[in-house]
Specification:
- The protein is an alpha/beta fold.
- It is built from 13 helices and 14 strands.
- About 45% of the residues are buried.
Length: about 350
Amino acid sequence: MGTMTIKVAINGYGTIGKRVADAVDAQDDMEIVGVTKTRPAFGCDLAVRKGYPIYCTFDDESRIKAFADAGYTCHGGLSDLLKVADIVVDCSPGKVGASNKATYVEAGVKWIFQGGEKHEMTGNSYTSSANHVQNLNVQGTRVVSCNTTGLSRTLVPLYEHCGELSVECTMIRRAADPGDSSKGPINAIKPVLKVPSHHGPDVMTVKPEIKINSMAVAVPTTIMHVHVITATLPEGHGLTTESILEMWASHPRLIIMNGAETGITTTAEVMEFSRDIGRKWGDLHEIFVWEDGVKLEGNTLYYFQAIHQESDVIPENVDAIRALMGVEEDWRVSVNKTDSAISKYNNL
């Protein structure tokens, strides 16, 4: 493809869409050709400030006209946006994927969905460290959820060293995103009574060799998820607690910190750390692992990790674009390019 710039459309300019748009805009091999909103709303002002062309999620003329009536320039409906795009990143609410996929296929563009959709609908799933090569030049894929992405970041390097891995995980989930006032629980701990929960087994859509089950509970917090992980390593694994920490420290998009030494012992302090270092929106693309919460005893590894659900999948979407467009075969090269561009863009 040479040095051509990949033209990217964002369908759904909300919590994930606005972040993906900025991450894409930061890259020198991509450009945002438009973002969609279902109706004129405050998110449109952000798109205007960024210089992203606004399109309507629908092709309905009256809906398109509503944008002009509200003072926004709307360049048309979704079908108009797809005509000028090479690939569309679908960040619309979960469960509307099947009808959107049919639209993308008909338009002849490549497509990426988010983890709210099922693997069966997309046929492919993606996370950078697990299966970048398998997604090269495919027509479409799904960037797995924030939880699956987080599990993959720490489990894939373990699996690659050991050759086999069996995992049990308890997900302590935030009840809603910070900007969502319509969900709960407010004063309860809510177990996910479907056992196992979908979070762990979803790892097997990107790394089927890892045996994993999970249970989940939702708690009254909005800022992060926490994973409590027990991994069984094979005999003769040759690892120590220290060598596992070194392995993770050399792996991209992981932050290892000692809670006792830093005073970062809760998710509130993890997010404060992210704000302190100047991250846009206070985002933390990396998975946070507490060093003093990691313990290998014989063949059993115990650890905790924290997941910023609004942002850990954002750079993965950029890498997925490169995989689908076939412009970078080495996932580590893509990750490095993605992350350095985002850092410069945010003036970090």
